[in-house]
């Protein structure tokens, strides 16, 4: 498969498929959920320029330039990454979007009535995946028109190796059954920048630039631990614009560090 990009540093190995982090192995231990396993058809994705579903708002979200047609988690995931840089320890991917270009919605018609999605702003979205001596860093850089509204969420799925894995923050421990009980809405972990998944081998997820996490799974063999700028279920779908951040003149930079413990 020619679109697999491999990174290697010491005992750490990463595989990226067309910009998607599909494997993070350390000393032979796989931390990422694997495609084909129950739970989710992906391993990671980015939620941009919005997070959460839009079906109850007729797939429209309000922006300063009028309503934009968006499906759940935005249109970025429907675009293809271009590999722009690759070394032994680092890979850089980019997606460029021109304002008001229509993007076909892969959920249509089976799961959505919105055939085409669009956004009224230009932007470039860069994803850098880099192995350091003891961790994996994923950095997102968003550049575009000053004042552009956006939300950003990173949606990685982790493989669970034991039946009693715990998701731990500084103030609480959360079990997988507790996450499953919340269902498709995802469990909010507010005002947190560090979460540790305690399993057969533990991994710490630290975020920079985000404000919260949300946790999602519907199966006991994987869990998504997602840094987010806004928890979308805090408002009615027609008020989703309340969760927007505004892009400044300089690019916005967000970072997620996955560190095996």
Give a verbal description of the structure.
- This protein is mostly beta strands.
- Helices cover 3% and strands 46% of the residues.
- The chain has one helix and 24 strands.
- The protein has a nine-stranded antiparallel β-sheet.
- A hairpin with a 2-residue loop joins β6 (60-63) and β7 (66-69).
- The two termini are 31 Å apart.
Gist?
The protein is mostly beta strands and 261 residues long. Helix content is 3%, strand content 46%. The longest helix is centred in the C-terminal third of the chain and has 7 residues, at 176-182.
List its traits.
261 residues, mainly beta, nine-stranded antiparallel beta sheet
The low-confidence parts are none
Strand content: over 45%
What average pLDDT do the residues reach?
96
| Large-scale geometry | globular
* Count, helices: 1
Order of helices and strands: EEEEEEEEEEEEEEEEEHEEEEEEE
Main pleated sheet: 9 strands, antiparallel
User: Helical proportion?
Assistant: under 10%
Distance between the termini: 31 Å
Radius of gyration from CA coordinates: 18 Å
Give the spatial strand order of the biggest sheet: 8-9-12-13-24-20-19-16-17
> What would you call the structural class?
mainly beta
- The counted number of beta strands is 24
What's the layout of helices and strands?
Blueprint: E1 4-9, E2 12-17, E3 20-26, E4 29-30, E5 44-47, E6 60-63, E7 66-69, E8 82-86, E9 90-97, E10 103-104, E11 116-117, E12 123-131, E13 136-144, E14 149-150, E15 153-159, E16 166-168, E17 173-175, H1 176-182, E18 187-189, E19 194-198, E20 203-208, E21 212-216, E22 222-228, E23 245-246, E24 252-260
Antiparallel strand pairs: 1-2, 2-3, 3-4, 5-15, 6-7, 8-9, 9-12, 10-11, 12-13, 13-24, 14-23, 15-22, 16-17, 16-19, 18-21, 19-20, 20-24, 21-22
